[in-house]
Structure prediction request, 230 residues.
Amino acid sequence: AQSVTQLDSHVSVSEGTPVLLRCNYSSSYSPSLFWYVQHPNKGLQLLLKYTSAATLVKGINGFEAEFKKSETSFHLTKPSAHMSDAAEYFCVVSDWNTGFQKLVFGTGTRLLVSP
Amino acid sequence: SAVISQKPSRDICQRGTSLTIQCQVDSQVTMMFWYRQQPGQSLTLIATANQGSEATYESGFVIDKFPISRPNLTFSTLTVSNMSPEDSSIYLCSALAGGGQETQYFGPGTRLLVL
Prediction:
């Protein structure tokens, strides 16, 4: 079965410094991977997705992620954090074993941005 | 992409009662999904709802507790039956959309508090 592990439950950065949110996946075949963001009291918004095209994926709001098969990782990065980036981030893998897409969510990483 | 709305956005209910949550998509989609997000937790898939067939429930979720309807390609409902305080959660619906039908877009969620 597919799974993802988000290595940090909380990440704290200062505004203007780089962001790194770590995610490792487990998959028996070439996976589809996603990062979603959830702002307080808001729904989930898709940041970016990897579906076996370019390994470096660019998303919205300056975020990007690199698919590294050798390391089974899909870490999310941003060069410079903004206060508005403070939110919960979920790494997600797509499982098609059941014949339709089933999303398997990581436990989430809360990003805290200080002035 | 797809724009998804949910009603109600939040509700406070008494134990033993039932609540029906509506999910509307702005375009026709084949697959819709219902998730639960318990306080401070990640998302767990409740069931998959395909138009014209019965919903497929994940382990730990049963139709008597969470009946789902999918009358057409743009709409679905989830009922939380005979509620208890343990049902207090955010309930989110999603739809599989995009050119390759490989991306799930989420509604804003329904915050349910059961007293």
User: Anything to note?
Assistant: Chain A touches chain B through 21 residues (CB under 8 Å).
